[in-house]
Amino acid sequence: MPAKPELTRIENDKRTIDPDFDFRDIAQRPFEDITTNEIGMFKWSGVYHQLQKGFFMIRLRLPGGVMTADQLRRAGELANEFGQGLLCITTRQTLQFHWIRKEDIYKVIEAMEATGVSSKNACGDVSRNVVTCEMQGVCPHEVGDVGDILHMVADDPEILDEQRNLPRKHKISVAGCGRACGQTLMNCQGWYPVLRAGQDGVDERGWRFHAGGGLGARPYMGKLIFGWVPEDLVLAVVQASTEAFRRLGNRRVRAYARLKIVVDELGAKGYGDVVLGIMRERNIAGLERLEQSDHSADVGESYLQGQRIIRQRQEGFNTLRIMIERSEFTGDEALRFADWATTYGNGTIMFTNRQNLQIRFVPDAQVAAAVAAIHADGYRMDGHEQLPDSVACVGTTMCNLAVSDTPNTYRAIMEELGNDAKLAEVIGPLRINMNGCPNSCAQHWIADIGLRGLRKREDVGSEDGFSIYAGGSLAEAGHIAQYVCDVVSVDVVPAIRRMLDAYLDNRRDADEVFGAWVRRIGGADVADLIGAEPVAADSEPENKRNLNLKQAFDEVVREAVTA
After folding, report:
1. Which are the contacts of 386, defined by CB distance < 8 A and separation ≥ 6?
2. CA triplet 215, 385, 346: central angle to 5 degrees?
3. 357: β partners
4. Residues 206 and 82 occupy one common structural domain
5. Which residues have a Cβ under 8 Å from the Cβ of 58 and sit 6 or more positions away?
């Protein structure tokens, strides 16, 4: 067996630096005296250093994406006072402050904690914000109320407090049913409830457990591990799966330090055996009631297809869906949304994985007035899951990792395509997601059209550009978007327009949506139809050293499993 490589710098930092910083103390220290290693560990408190020296982003932890009007109102006040009036919705259904000075970090964190909202574990090598489907709690398709399970997982002391030294980030989704709305297959752990007849003839609710999903530079779809988990064993499985990741995750190569690599290496049966073994170590009773899966994941299509107003399962109430342009809004807008939520609803706000906002529990009698107020202030409610509803990361404006300017590309797409109501109507369902680097924070791998930032080499130097992918989906067993071509940024809109024209000219019929068309003909044929010259989809060579380390890691996993 080859010698094991050294631990990464971050792994060594986790041994020596306490992640629970006193940000009042940090406020008093000169910026130059704070080490890069310490700043890297700020993430465990939800704090990232921005591209601009001395400014920070603070991410909150909002299990299930729900916030009260009072909490949002306070966030808006803090953004105005300390963050240049800017707030941002993330694809994991939470809220970020930007432009926070070092001296003000503690003020924002403490003020939000006073409202019941924490930033702890919003970033770092921990279990991140637990996500769900955007209609969880009010959806007519939800299999019972899953909010209790969601919060049991999100607030579990072992997950929240003890498992804070994982090999890398760990993401959990608790969906309300077996549809793709909850993004089950792209998370490290993906859960959704199912019903079956009990021994007394009464329907019993259990859960399906998936593991090993994840995007990033190397996308994987989750595998179905247990086809049936009794409700009283859900938390024990979540804990054991997290512990399996802690033991087996790669701490020597960050690129391979995700649960998706472990599950891919072991397979669904092998990983399920590891989880069961840990539960036996913990003397968990009733393991014979767990049913390991003998088939692949099968997730239904999302039922969210452009609705602006959705009738809740609570009779007489509605959820209003408001589109937030490029996920950003001001502190003043936050105050406005909070006022709408209390004036027209019951004060409940939901953030969605497409970086939009909902106002819930609007009575039938208040819908018209609420819609009129929303439209009067210039907000869009039409076009969800269509051309106007595009997702973009912050790109080179704020992120240290980005190589492409996603905000400008987003604006170009909106101006030339997204505002064309007739085009949006004829195209129908279409999700465009754009990412400024390979890390897939904006989830380009699972979009109908996904953009991944790159620097495109020219005769002299390089130019800001994107790789274009198409046909991604989280339904069925999941579909990773297929490579189409590389373009410089100024050619993104023309390339997308040619793709849409090719779709309209070549689809089987009006019922064949864009994503299904791409998956039928393949990315290479799409490239041919639009006159692009694609490189081979696997043309990005892996670093040879990383391949050697991957082989060493595979040996470590096999040793751990057979020990």
Report:
1. 306, 424, 427, 428, 429, 430
2. 100
3. 322, 351
4. no
5. 46, 47, 48, 96, 97, 100, 105, 108, 109, 119
Q: In terms of domains, do 231 and 269 share one?
A: yes
Domain CATH number, residue 85 = 3.90.480.20
* Number of domains into which the chain is organized: 4
pLDDT band, residue 396 (cuts 50/70/90): confident
Let me know if 176 is exposed, middle or buried by CB neighbors in 10 A (0-12, 13-18, 19+). Answer: buried
Calculate the average pLDDT of the chain: 93
Residues contacting 283, CB < 8 A, separation 6+: none
Range of the domain at 344: 309-376
Q: Cβ(527)–Cβ(479) under 8 Å?
A: no
pLDDT digits (tens, 9 = 90+) for 157-211: 999 999 999 999 999 999 999 999 999 999 999 999 999 998 888 899 999 999 9
281 with 223, same domain?
yes
- Joined tokens for residue 24: 């009042």
Beta strands in 133-217 (DSSP E): 172-174, 189-197, 203-211
Contact 304, 181 (CB under 8 A): yes
Residue 3 CA, chain-centre distance (Å), reads: 36
Tell me, yes or no, whether 131 lies in a domain.
Answer: no
Specify whether 516 is located in the same domain as 461.
yes
Torsion angle, alpha carbons of 131, 135, 140, 141, to 10: -40
The verdict on 153 and 223 lying in the same domain is: yes
Tokens of 189: 């752990």
Q: Which strands form 328-330's sheet, in the order they lie side by side?
A: 47-49, 55-59, 95-101, 86-89, 328-330
Instruction: Give the pair of three-digit tokens for residue 333.
Output: 């807008």
The reported pTM is 0.93
Query: Is the Cβ–Cβ distance between 385 and 304 less than 8 Å?
Result: yes
Written in H, E and C, the secondary structure of 315-360 is CCEEEEEEECHHHEEEHHHHHHHHHHHHHHCCCEEEECCCCCEEEE
